[in-house]
UniProtKB/TrEMBL annotation:
This is Retinol dehydrogenase 13. The lineage of its organism: Eukaryota, Viridiplantae, Streptophyta, Embryophyta, Tracheophyta. PROSITE patterns: MHD1, MHD2. Residues 1-13 have a biased composition (Basic and acidic residues). Residues 819-929 form the MHD2 domain. Residues 547-690 form the MHD1 domain. InterPro entries: Munc13_1, Munc13_dom-2, PATROL1_C, unc-13_homologue. Residues 741-768 form a coiled coil. It comes from Urochloa decumbens. It comes from the Eukaryota. Residues 14-38 have a biased composition (Low complexity). Keywords: Coiled coil. Residues 1-46, 83-103, 121-149, 937-956 are annotated as: Disordered.
């Protein structure tokens, strides 16, 4: 298109009287009968109510204004009737000759039409026959042939549906403007403003037409200067605010128009102030119609004049029309790139409106799109890119709607249009991706083939749609007289569809995708495979119908693979990628999948059973003699039955599928164990918060608060407690949970032995495979180990800090150390140990008691180091403390019948290391503390020591531990040091 604007106007010798741009009646009728609605405009909405007719008349005004010449000579106007009265072939009148000096381009004679250079470049043929009498769309009657426009200007008026009176008024207005503003160019005028000043209501045949004309011009001013100006407005622009007020007022109260109107003078002041702005600050012209996207809407109306109103074809006078349209560019801010884009859209839109039968228009649109593609690579103007994206997206959207289901769109009768539709759709996609997409530019090194990717998408989508249709047809073919399974019928239909694809569509699509047939059959293979999987998944046993379906599937698969292999002989990988996309329909795989579904159902059922039964489980120790939870026993019974049922299945691949089953059973057992320990909490759930440090003052009110019972414990008890008031987290219940996990862990070995025995007895198992099978319930094994440890610790710390918290915090060593010794705690621990010993399984009993021992040792140490201000110890109390701890330690030794002595010694080592601090004098403790603090804080001096952090790791070598011994030391030295060093209070 670029070179066409650089070529001279066609030579008069090339005119041919045999081509006049009109179709024969039959052709026009054919176009009319297949016409379709126009596509929605791809340009952004203007935001103001301007109809197509409004925009068309405004565009015509711009065209006429731009086409007139400038200079000292006045513009003369010849009424259209005078020109038409002479007839199409008459010589121009004197008046017409006078006019030709001022508007030669508009008045160029159309007495003949020649072969258009532009049509030739676009691949369009010139019309070769005249329109007959009374032909459809001619607008004439049977009395005679329709009058043919005598000039390019009249042709454009007719094409743009401008009435002769309106045309006369426009030209008269331009004459007046030229007379009053001699030498002023069209691009230096704001036409709506000038027209408003030239005409009054008396210039119109009726008030309604005048009001519509006045409103249109005001809306044009609003759209061009306020909504879509070339140079963006500042919010504080006074001219814009004033213009907005004038226009708003004119809608409510009619604005008086005419040359001497005061309101028009105010309007002119605001309009010219806004129109005179430019990007570079110069004001050599007026910018009112060149703002985006108003300029595109106006220019598109002009481009539509290139197409015959009745036939939709490109007029033979396209070269002359384009010359005139180019004159409007300076006013509308249009350049060659925007023109190419608008013309591409117009060609494509008219192809759609032709009912997709005018293949020449489609070919022309494709040729013009090639120019757009070149333009897109040379500019990154945001407005251009925006409208380019919108336009090409509209084109691609229309084409893809048809190509994504091309089996429904194209057949032998219209297959010739498919090539062009694919081509223009792919070309649009390529520009969108390669020249607009930021993502593509970032990933350019990957050499994305846009055309191949889009065509592959079309093939796969269309084949899936066609497959779904064949599915419905196959279902309707099955009846009592034709009991053939639906999938067998479908297999034959899909084979026929693959042949049609290969012979009809693939030859066209191979232009963009060399493996079009292969992609198609791979898609059909996948679609049928999905249905086959669903069929097999719904089976409960192998039947004759099942065998027939699998045989039909096998034959279809061979046919599809043969097509794929033939299509990919010359490909780089020999078709390996396509074959990999077509996993075989193996009967054995189908059976295996069926068994996997069976396994999944059993495992899911087992998981559901776990959820239901554990919600009802009370963990009552009296439920059975072994003190196991009934649900744990039932769980293992169900798993055993599942294994028996699996080995009774009539399948040849037990060893292959066994890991799937055992993995599912392992996860189910893991779920049981996880739910059994969930909600019990952890040791940290019951550890108390340490009170602030204080100095000793015997007799002060105890403000240390034991940690409140966790709220979740109270809620759980109210929800899960049985009718007899059993607490699911009471000591006996926790012991039953512990036993249940130990029971499951012990039974895992028996399950593994049972599986190996069953595996040896099935016919499908070979000796070497059976011997190599290693069945391990690893998830459950690990969950049991972790769960037992967690429940042991939770039980121990709950008993110590929650159940016996009143003894530790409210009694032990409160007030008089000698009066509140450890005997009370020992008495409370006796029944706890009896319950554990009598309830917990012997394999985990020592672990539970060991955990309790560690928890009580921790509690004992916490009382000494963080027991709150009601406790105070002298050096003499150290002997009592040591004796009490020895008694607590002996409780777990039980004269040799309890825990092993080395285990007790290891657990008591921390307490033993700390107790000597209570025997040391305060002065040595203070010096010890200062030395440790200075060593750990090099910048600290002995006079200013920072408060050591509480680590919880009690040790005679840890500063916080020594400091706490001093805090609970009842003597003046310790109190004075704490007061002086840290100013610790005596009360909390």
């Amino acid at each position: 298109m670029a070179r066409l604007f650089r070529e001279s106007r066609r030579d008069s010798s090339s005119h041919s009287s045999s081509s006049n741009g009109f179709l024969q009646p039959a052709a026009a009728a054919a176009v009319s009968s297949t016409s379709s609605p126009a596509l929605p405009s791809p340009f952004p909405d203007l935001g103001v109510q301007l109809s197509a007719a409004d925009l068309r008349e405004a565009a015509y005004e711009v065209l006429v204004a731009a086409s007139r010449t400038t200079g000292g000579k006045p513009l003369t106007y010849i009424p259209q009737g005078a020109a038409s009265g002479a007839g199409a072939g008459a010589p121009p009148s004197p008046a017409s000759s006078a006019s030709s000096a001022s508007s030669a381009s508009l008045q160029r004679s159309l007495t003949s039409a020649a072969a258009s250079k532009m049509k030739k470049a676009l691949g369009l043929r010139s019309s070769a026959s005249t329109k007959g009498v009374g032909s459809p769309g001619s607008g004439g009657k049977a009395a005679g042939p329709p009058r043919r426009p005598a000039t390019v200007g009249e042709l454009l008026r007719v094409q743009m549906r401008v009435s002769e009176p309106a045309d006369a008024r426009i030209r008269r207005g331009l004459l007046r403007i030229a007379a009053s503003q001699l030498g002023r160019r069209a691009e230096s005028m704001v036409l709506p403003l000038e027209f408003l000043q030239q005409f009054k209501a008396s210039d119109f045949p009726d008030p309604q037409e005048y009001e519509a004309w006045r409103t249109r011009n005001l809306k044009l001013l609003e759209a061009s200067l306020l909504l879509h100006p070339l140079v963006p407005l500042n919010k504080s622009d006074s001219s814009a605010q004033r213009l907005r007020q004038i226009i708003r007022g004119a809608y409510d109260r009619p604005l008086e128009t005419g040359r001497n109107s005061e309101s028009l003078q105010s309007l002119r002041t605001s309009v010219m102030s806004l129109a005179g702005r430019s990007h570079d600050g110069t004001s050599d012209g007026c910018h009112w119609a060149d703002g985006f996207p108003l300029n595109l809407h106006l220019y598109q109306m002009l481009v539509e004049a290139c197409f015959d109103n009745d036939e939709g074809t490109v007029v033979d006078e396209i070269d002359e029309v384009m010359e005139l349209l180019k004159k409007t560019w300076v006013i509308l801010g249009i350049n060659e790139m925007l023109h190419n884009l608008c013309f591409t859209w117009a060609l494509f839109n008219h192809f759609v409106m032709s009912g997709q039968v005018d293949i020449e228009l489609l070919s022309a649109a494709e040729n013009q799109l090639a120019e757009v593609a070149k333009d897109a690579k040379t500019t990154k103007d945001p407005n251009y890119c925006k409208v380019l994206s919108s336009t090409l997206s509209s084109i691609m959207g229309w084409t893809e709607k048809r190509l994504l289901a091309y089996h429904e769109t194209f057949n032998t009768s219209n297959i010739e249009s498919m090539q062009g539709i694919v081509s223009i759709g792919v070309s649009a996609a390529r520009v969108l991706v390669e020249d607009i997409s930021h993502e593509y530019r970032r990933r350019r090194k990957e050499e994305t083939d846009v055309a191949r990717t889009r065509v592959e998408t079309y093939i796969r989508s269309s084949l899936r749609t066609a497959f779904a249709l064949r599915m419905e047809e196959a279902d309707s073919k099955r009846s009592s007289r034709n009991p053939t399974p639906v999938l067998s019928i479908l297999a034959k239909d899909i084979g026929d569809l693959a042949l049609k694809e290969k012979n009809l569509y693939s030859p066209i699509l191979k232009t963009w995708h060399p493996l079009a047939s292969g992609v198609a059959v791979a898609t059909l293979h996948s679609c049928y495979g999905n249905e086959l999987k669903q069929f097999v998944a719904g089976l409960t046993e192998l039947t004759p119908d099942t065998v027939q379906v699998l045989k039909s599937a096998d034959k279809l698969e061979k046919d599809l693979v043969n097509i794929a292999v033939e299509d990919s002989v010359d490909s780089d990988d020999g078709g390996k990628s396509l074959i990999r996309e077509m996993p075989p329909y193996e009967a054995e795989n189908a059976i295996a999948n069926l068994v996997k579904v069976w396994i999944k159902e059993r495992v899911d059922r087992l998981k559901g059973w776990v959820d239901r039964n554990l919600k009802q489980e009370t963990w009552n120790p009296g439920a059975n003699r072994e003190n196991f939870a009934p649900s744990s026993v039932e769980m293992l019974r169900v798993i055993g039955e599942t294994l028996d049922a699996f080995f009774e299945l009539p399948i040849p691949m037990h060893p292959t599928l066994l890991p799937d089953l055992t993995a599912g059973l392992d996860r189910s057992l893991q779920l049981y164990v996880s739910k059994a320990k969930s909600g019990c909490g952890t040791r940290n759930s019951f550890m108390p918060q340490l009170p602030p440090l204080t100095r000793c003052e015997v007799g002060s009110k105890l403000l240390f608060k034991k940690k409140e019972k966790p709220q979740n414990l109270q809620v759980r008890a109210s929800q899960n407690g049985t009718a007899n008031g059993n607490d699911p987290l009471g000591l006996p219940q926790l012991c039953v949970r512990l036993n249940s996990l130990q029971y499951i862990r012990g039974e895992l070995e028996n399950l593994e032995k049972k599986i190996k025995t069953c595996l040896r007895n099935v016919e499908s198992a070979q000796a070497d495979i059976t011997d190599g099978v290693d069945i391990k319930f690893e998830l459950c094994q690990a969950a049991c180990q972790e769960g037992i440890q967690q429940i042991c610790e939770t039980t121990a710390y709950k008993v110590t800090f929650y159940d016996l918290g009143h003894v530790l915090w409210d009694t032990l060593y409160v007030g008089d150390t000698a009066a509140n010794r450890v005997e009370v705690l020992l008495r409370e621990l006796d029944p706890v140990l009896e319950t554990i010993s009598g309830t917990v399984h012997n394999k985990v009993r020592n672990r539970a008691i060991t955990a309790l021992m560690k928890a009580t040792f921790d509690g004992f140490l916490l009382v000494l180091l963080a027991g709150g201000p009601l406790r105070a110890f002298t050096r003499q109390d150290s002997q009592i403390i040591e004796d009490d701890f020895r008694a607590l330690r002996d409780l777990y030794l039980a004269d040799g019948d309890g825990l092993p002595e080395e285990l007790v010694d290891k657990a008591s080592s921390q307490v033993k290391n700390v107790l000597p601090l209570f025997r040391a004098d305060s002065e040595s403790l203070i010096e010890r503390f200062k030395r440790m603090m200075v060593e750990s804080n090099r910048s600290a001096s002995k006079n200013r020591l920072p408060l050591p952090p509480t680590t919880g790791h009690w040790s005679p070598n840890e500063p916080n531990t020594v400091l706490r011994v001093l805090c609970y030391r009842s003597d003046e030295t310790a109190t004075r040091f704490l007061k002086k060093t840290y100013n610790l209070p005596k009360k909390i």
